[in-house]
Here is the input.
Amino acid sequence: MSETTTSPAAHGAGGAPTEVAAPHRYTAALAADIEARWQDFWESEGTYEAPNPSGDLAGDAALVARPKKFIMDMFPYPSGAGLHVGHPLGFIATDVYARHQRMTGHNVLHTLGFDAFGLPAEQYAVQTGTHPRVSTEANIVNMRRQLRRLGLGHDLRRSVETIDPAYYKWTQWIFVQIFNSWYDPEADAARPIDTLVAQFEAGTRPTPDGRAWAELSAAERASVLGEYRLAYASDAPVNWCPGLGTVLANEEVTADGRSERGNYPVFKAKLRQWNMRITAYADRLLNDLDALDWPEAIKLQQRNWIGRSEGARVDFPVGDDAHITVFTTRQDTLFGATYMVLAPEHELVSGANGTGSIVPAAWPEGTHDVWTGGHATPGDAVAAYRKQAAAKSDVERQAEAKDKTGVFTGVYATNPVSGEQVPVFIADYVLMGYGTGAIMAVPAHDSRDFAFARAFELPMRCVVEPADDRGQDPMTWDDAFDSYDAKIVNSTGAEISLDGLVVTEAKAKITDWLAAKGIGEGTVNFRLRDWLFSRQRYWGEPFPIVYDEDGVAHALPESMLPLELPEVEDYSPRTFDADDADTRPETPLSRNEDWVDVELDLGDGAGLKRYRRETNTMPNWAGSCWYEMRYLDPHNADALVDPGIEQYWMGPREGQPAGGVDLYVGGAEHAVLHLLYARFWSKVLHDLGHVSSSEPFHKLYNQGMIQAFVYRDSRGIAVPAAEVEERDGAYYYQGEKVSRVLGKMGKSLKNAVTPDEICAEYGADTLRLYEMAMGPLDVSRPWDTRAVVGQYRLLQRLWRNVVDEATGETTVVDAEPDEATLRALHKAIDGVTQDLANLRFNTAIAKITELNNHLTKVGGPVSRTVAEQLVLLIAPLAPHVAEELWRKLGHSGTIVHADFPVADPAYVVDETVTCVVQIKGKVKARLEVAPSISDADLETAALAEPAVVAALGGAGIRKVIVRAPKLVNIVPA
Here is the structure.
C-alpha cells in the first residue's frame, strides 16, 4: 500500500500539502464534511448525555449502574477575542480522557459552562455603551461555536452561565446560607446562626457586656452576631485601587503592589466591606489537603498561604487603661524584647473601633531626635508616616529593604516579664494582616528587628546563647542570631527564670506562666486573612442584602431570589487618578435610587418596611465557587442540587474520603484564589447538610501552556508573527530585522493562531492530535503551525489503510493477521490504554502512529480485526474520523460507547528480544533470545556464538558482564 499520494514538492503557504485529485482522499474538505455531520449526529442523538439517578436528567438505568466519572475543566471566561489555539489545550485533554472512560465502561459527566461576570465585559460596556449582557452573550455564542467545531463531547443539557438569573439565584442563596451561619469551635463546623442566638437567649453564652440578650437593641444584637457570622460586613483595611474604582482581595494584588487587572497602583484604605470568614476554616483547609490527589506544588502554595504557626499571645500594658497584644512564635525570647512596633493602621494609633489613640500630644522628655522623624509632635509624625505607608503594598512593606523606616509613637509599654519600659514605634514592616498587627521586637534574634534597632539606636539584649564565638553583646554583631537549638540566657526576672533551658522547654514554661498570670496564652495564628467579598462594580451578582433604618443588614428570603441586576445608564464605577490614595469608591448601582430604596415585607414578622439595598456586587470568584454542583442538577428550581444526585456524582467513596470531582484540569495560577475559595464554600455547604462532599475537587491536574514566538521591531512593538520571514537564522518583517522571544500567545502580541484557521486548513481531528502530541500535558510547549502537518499525515495514512481513495469503499479483509502484526497491535493496545488512563496523550499518539506505520510498511489489505481495533484506539483522540471509519467498517452504533480494545497478554510480551554481544565495547554479534533467559544461559549462548568465537581468536577471557536479556560485554584477558 502506497504511503503517500501527495505531490512531494507541493505544499501550501501554511505548510499543508497541496491535495491531488482523489475523490475519496482524506483532505481538509473531507474532514470538514465528516466533522460537521458527526457533530450534528452527536447533538441530535444526545450521545454525550450522562444520566442522573433521578430528577429531570434521569436516563438509562444501565448507564447509571456503571462506575461514574465526573470530569471537569476550569470555568472559561467568554472573551470577545474568542479562542486561540492555546485555550483549548485542557479542554481537548479532558475530552480525550472522558471518551476513553466512556469506552472503558463508565457513566461520564463532562460538560462546560461560562464564568461570565467580571471586569472585561464591564470595561467593554464602558467604552462602547453596549450592555455587558449583550457583549457577553455574543461572546458565549462564538465560543460555543468554536468549541463545538473541536468535537468536544460535552453534555450540553448541563451547561451553565453565571450571568443567568436562574444560576445566580443559587449563588445568592449560598451567600445567605453563609451569612446565616457561624463557626462553632466545639462542633468544628458551621452551624445555623439561630443556634448561636439560642445560646445567647439561654444565657449559656454571655453577651460582650454581660447584659441579657433581651435587653439588647436590634442593632446591638446585629453587631454581636456580626462578630460570629461567616459572612459579615466590617470596617477594615482593604486594597483600594483608585484607577479601577474598586477594592481588591489580597490575591488580586501583584507582587509589586499593583492591580492584577489594569496594573494600577493599590493603596491601603479603611472601608466598610463584606468579608467571608474563611479563617475559621484555616485548620481544616490545611489538614484536608492530605486526602486530595493534587500536585504537591499546589498543596505547598496553599499551605504557605494559610501559614499556620504556633506561639503565644502576650499583653504589654500601656499606661493604666490600654494594652498592646502581640502574637509571637518565640515567647522564649520575651526577656529580649527591647521595643515594640505597631502597624501604621493599628487601632491604638488610629483610634479606630472606639479604642482611642494612645498617641500623646507631646514628645516625652528625652526622646531621641532620630525617633521623631523631624516632626514637632507625635501626632504629626504618626499622621505623616501613616500616609507614607498607605502608598505601599503589603509585598513592598515586607520586602527586605536595607533601610528600615518608622517613627516613635511617644508612648512606652511595659515588658510583662522584666517590668522594663520599652518604646512603641510604628513601622511599615509590620502588617495588620498578620497576627495582631503588633510585634515585640527582639533585635538580637531577628534580622529585621536588628536592622531597625541599628537604624534607631535602640538597645539589644542577647537571650539565646550563640553557637559561635561572637559573644553575648549584640552591639558587636553583624546580624541577629536565630536558633531553636540553643540555651536561654539573661532571662531571669522577679517571678520567673528561663536561664539554662533549651528553646522548647522555655517556650512551654513561659506560656504556662503567662496563662497563669492572665496576660497571655498559647495560641495558633494563620497568615490567611478573611476573604474580601465586595466589589464596587456593576457586572456582578447583587448581594441579597438590605439595610433597615438602623443600618442592620437583613438577608432576603429565598422567595425573593434571584435579586436581578437592574438596568443602569452608566456601567462604570467612579474611577480616580490612579495615584490618589485619598479617594473612596462610588458604585454604579448606588445611582439607581428606584432600585436601591425599596419597601419590602421580608416575612420576619416586621411587616412592610423601607430598606436600602447593598450597592456593592460580589467578586468574579463567586459563581465559580460552586459551579461543579450545579452541573449535576442544572434545572432544579427548588434546590441547589438534589442530595441523591450530588451523592451519586460527588459523594465520598473508597479512595476519595472527602468526595469531589474525579478529575479537574486547569491552570496552576488559581492555587490560592479559586481553589481555596471553592474549598471553603464546599466545606460550609457540607457542614450545613446541603452536600455530602466536603471537598470540591478530588484530583487536580495542571496543564501546561501553549506558547508562541513574539516578534518585535526596533521600537519594541510586536509585529504580525505570520508575516515574519526567516533568513540565515535571522528574522525579518517587511525587510526590517526583528527580535524573537518565546512568550504567551495573544491578540495583542500579534502571534495568535485561532483554532478556526487550523480546522479550516487541516480539520479538527488534526488540531486535536497535534495539541495532544506536542509534549507532556503538564509542560509548556511552543506552537509551530508548520509541524501540524505531521498529524494530518497520520490521519491520511490511517484513512488509506481502511478506505480506497478512488472508490470510497473499505479495503479491509477478513483474513487473520500475521503474528508480527498481532504483536504490534496488542503492544499498542496495552500502551495506549495505560497512557490514556494517565493523561500521557503524547506517548499514546506515538504508539498509535507506530502501529499505523507498521500496517503501512507491511502493505496489502489490512485485516478487519486490526483495522477495527486501530480505529477504536484513536477514537478518543480523533473522534470524527474514527466515527466515519467505524461506520464504513459496517457498525451502525456510535463508536463513542463502543468497548475499548483489551490487550492479549500473550502478544504483549516479546517472544524474543535482541541481545547485543560486545567485545571491548564493539558489537560483534546479535542474538535473538527469550525475554526470560537467565544470566548464565545468556553468557553460555554468547560465548558459543561463532562470530564471538572468531572475534576472540583463542584469547582468554578476563570478565563477562551480563545484563540479561539485552547485553553481554566480554573483556578479553
Summary: The chain is about 30% helix and 15% strand. The domain at 53-165+622-702 is CATH 3.40.50.620 (Rossmann fold).
